[in-house]
Amino acid sequence: MTEIRDVEVVVFDVLGTLVDEPSGLRAAIREAVPASDDTSVDELLTLWQQHVELEQQRIAQGHRAYANTEIIDGEAAQRVAVHAGLTDAAAVARLATAGQRLLPWSDSVAGVERLARRFPVLGLSNASRTALLHLNAHAGLRWHQALSGEAVLAYKPAQEVYRLAVDTAGRPPENVLMVAAHAWDLRGAQALGMRTAHVRRPVGDPPKHSDAFDGQFNGLDELVTALTPR
Q1: Does 3 fall in a domain?
Q2: PANTHER family under this entry (predicted)?
Q3: What is the span of the domain harbouring residue 39?
């Protein structure tokens, strides 16, 4: 088992790493459009995800002023509604907040709690501050502090988002561990000098052969063991 030494603060990505975002969005779409079959729900989910990804890229490229995830998710919900013929304003409004009602992976709550007994633990998310607050409460995630990219008006993998975590940690980046299921996220943290750990999830972005992260783990239990060896 890999051991990761000299870590003083642990930083977790949230969406996809600790909560199952696609399943949560899929469930919300099915609730909003109950007549949809599995194929239609998957199409609507793809429409949602493509909108979010495109708008965050436009912001990163300077083609759009920063808009938080509540705004972008609201736009995505409207696109889904138009495509599905959904005209119930209340249903569309509820769909827009689907990202605040995501469920944790089975090992997330206990894993974060175990690490928090030994390390300061931060959440670092692209979710807006308000969305992150409600998401954490719904999923039962307990942090020492949760940080949103909204504080620096940027989305990961922009360097200022990781700098926010390092500055909050008050430790050199080489003593701060970024944990994520997305290799692209870890590359962004690595570029700032942070330590990195990939946790495999069904919806994550797997590492490439060229990636050299400090550790790769099948779940949080393995990560906790690597960080708290006997």
Answers
A1: no
A2: HALOACID DEHALOGENASE, TYPE II (AFU_ORTHOLOGUE AFUA_2G07750)-RELATED, HYDROLASE, HALOACID DELAHOGENASE-RELATED
A3: 21-100
Q: Tell me, what's the pLDDT at 47? A: 98
What pLDDT does residue 79 have? 98
Same domain, 51 and 129: no
Q: Which of 82, 100, 118 is the last residue of a domain?
A: 100
End position of a domain, from candidates 76, 100, 124: 100
Contact predicate 18/135, CB 8 Å: no
Instruction: Read off the pLDDT of residues 97-136 as tens digits, 9 standing for 90 and up.
Output: 999 999 999 999 999 999 999 999 999 999 999 999 999 9
CA distance 100 to 130: 9
Residue 83: what residue type? H
Is 216 strand, coil or helix? Answer: strand
140 touches 162 (CB < 8 A)? no
Q: Are residues 126 and 70 in the same domain?
A: no
Question: How many whole angstroms separate alpha carbon 54 and alpha carbon 64?
Answer: 11
Question: Sign (positive/negative) of CA torsion 51, 54, 60, 63?
Answer: negative
Total number of domains constituting the chain: 2
Half-sphere exposure of 173 (CA within 13 A, CB side): 16
Q: Amino acid letter at 133? A: L
CB of 19 closer than 8 Å to CB of 182: no
Pair of tokens at residue 173: 């980046």
* Sheet-wide strand order for 121-125: 145-148, 121-125, 9-12, 176-180, 195-199, 215-217
Local structure of residue 7 (DSSP, 8 states): -
